[in-house]
Amino acid sequence: MIEDTITAIATPIGTGGIGIIRLSGSNSLAIADKMFNSWNEVKVHEIPSFNLRLGYVIDPGDGEVFDEVLLSVMRAPKSFTGEDVVEINCHGGPIVMEKILRLTLELGARMAEAGEFTKRAFLNGRIDLAQAEAVIDVIEAKTDLALGVAVNQLHGNISERIGYLQKRLVSVLAQMEASIDFPEDVGEIDCSETRRILLNIKETIHSMIAEGQRGKILREGLTTVIIGKPNVGKSSLLNALVKENRAIVTEFPGTTRDAIEEVINLDGLPLRIVDTAGIRETGDVVEKIGVDRAKKLLAEADLVLFVVDAATMLTEDDKLIARELNKDNTIVLLNKHDLKNIEMTERFINETLPEFQSLKISAKEKWGLDKLPILIRDKVFGNNIVAKDRNIVTRSRHLSALNKAVNYLNEAINGLENGNMVDLLTIDIRGAWDSLGEITGETIAEDVLNTIFKEFCIGK
Ligand SMILES: Nc1nc2c(ncn2[C@@H]2O[C@H](COP(=O)(O)OP(=O)(O)OP(=O)(O)O)[C@@H](O)[C@H]2O)c(=O)[nH]1
Ligand SMILES: [Mg+2]
Q: I need a labelling partner for 161 at 20 to 30 A (CA). Which of 51, 123, 307, 436 fits?
């Protein structure tokens, strides 16, 4: 059991209708009692769990009234953290919230670290680690679809899938150990049956990994970089996609110097779109930094939108960029389609980048862009559309644990095929079990745990 009582402002800093100060720990009720005068003179420790009382927050030192508030009590173990929790709903002004927070500190609470409420919920066994991480994902979901998947994870659906796989591994392990300990009674293990079960578990994990690649995009957003030589209409494209004049557009080449990033919701798929400086050889120091940055972004992109000016002949600058591109993650946009001459460029592009998908657009006239979402979805998801209610893995941490489990299973399966000693096989199967346990937090190192909760904000 954790001893000290923590406190934090749980609502965003700034002005709002309501602000919440949250206390958790064994002294929560006692601290709240010292600073709360309820209208009907009830003491905080007399308030039943999940009940609200109206009253004043008062400085017990000089009797100063800070605010009129609603106070709620949730007792251990039936609270989010599993500890005694008090929430003070005050008015949402920064000064009021700060004063009430400071009072809870003076009365013996300690300032909560980022994610500490959720960390306590995990340490007290209220939720597992995958569910704790889902709390952040719900808060940070960028689209409806991403939210649906995160809520599913919060319900524990991923953990359930993992638990089922672990259970199957344990039963294999139990048979192996029995065959070691009681060879007369149990006999040898059935190698082909064991191999079949392990292959089947491995297959399930494989499909979770494949789905997870897409799940990760759903959570983190698809980094989409707009690339091209100067003046082809990259910034015009960004503006058309975000539907506002976000980037400066002029007829002068070299207008955009720095990378400009915006997030849009493309049919449920969060896209982090980055407009970049036009790539060309340049003597201008500032522009050169922008060009280098664009090249770096190109290398890190999940998806590349290569823009060419279809109304003029392609130049050496276009060809240099084209050489850096990969057909699997690039869509070529033949821009300025509202102007003449575009057939030449189109033919040229078809010859230079034969297997690349392309689309004729006019960023200026906002024409042809309606087909872009379909192309992008196709590139990213293929036929595997993610449904909201799917239990898919969305975090790199989970993906790497799944990959680790697959490696152990491969070792075990190879071992079986080579007729290795059974006690050697059990080591690999235990390794696979442990790797899966990292996802739910059963088998995780303290330092990893701390890094995970650092992702949270204070008060969560
Ligand atoms: N006719 C026509 N003009 C366009 C189109 N898209 C962009 N332009 C014009 O092309 C010029 C350059 O557009 P920008 O969007 O600034 O081009 P950019 O690629 O961002 O240029 P840099 O930032 O310099 O690399 C501007 O004068 C735009 O109005 C289009 O679809 N049709
Ligand atoms: Mg630009």
A: 123
Question: What is the pLDDT confidence band of residue 384, given thresholds at 50, 70 and 90?
Answer: low
| Rounded Cα gap, residues 17 and 12, in angstroms | 11
Section 244-261 average pLDDT: 93
Q: Which residue has better confidence, 346 or 440?
A: 440
- Please name the residue whose Cα sits nearest to atom 10 of ligand 1: 233
Round to whole Å and give the CA distance between 303 and 432.
Answer: 33
Cα 242 from Cα 270, distance rounded (Å): 12
> Has residue 445 got a pLDDT over 80?
yes
The Cα–Cα gap between 32 and 88 comes to 9
Of 378, 347, 346, 351, nearest to 361 (Cα)? 346
Cα distances from 16 to residues 93, 96, 97, 150, 394, in angstroms, run 6, 11, 11, 26, 32
246 with 422: CB under 8 angstroms? no
What's the CATH number for 6-112?
3.30.1360.120
pLDDT in tens, 286-301: 988 988 999 999 998 9
List the residue whose alpha carbon is closest to atom 16 of ligand 1.
249
Residue-level pLDDT at 383: 57
Architecture of domain 144-216+395-454 in this structure: Up-down Bundle (1.20)
Of 394, 343, 103, nearest to 221 (Cα)? 394
Is 70 exceeded by the pLDDT of residue 341? no
Return the bridge partners of 8, or none.
Answer: 22
Query: H-type helices in 187-229, by residue range?
Result: 191-220
List pocket residues of ligand 1, CB cut-off 6 Å: 228, 230-236, 249-251, 253-256, 277-278, 335-336, 338-339, 362-364
Q: Which atom of ligand 1 is nearest to the CA of 251?
A: 27
At residue 166, the 3 state secondary structure works out as helix
23 vs 107: CA distance, rounded Å: 12
Kindly report the number of other CB atoms within 10 A of residue 19's CB atom.
Answer: 26
**Residue 388 confidence (pLDDT):** 62
162 or 374: which carries more pLDDT confidence? 162
- What is the spatial distance between Cα 278 and Cα 235, in angstroms, rounded to a whole number? 10
**Domain parsing of the chain, residue ranges:** 6-112, 144-216+395-454, 221-381
Q: Which residues surround ligand 2, an ion (CB under 5 A)?
A: 234-235, 255-256
Please state the φ and ψ torsions of residue 219, each to the nearest 5 degrees: -80, -45
Fold of 221-381: Rossmann fold (3.40.50)
User: Whole-angstrom Cα distance, residue 301 to residue 247?
Assistant: 20
313 backbone dihedrals φ, ψ, rounded to 5°: -70, 145
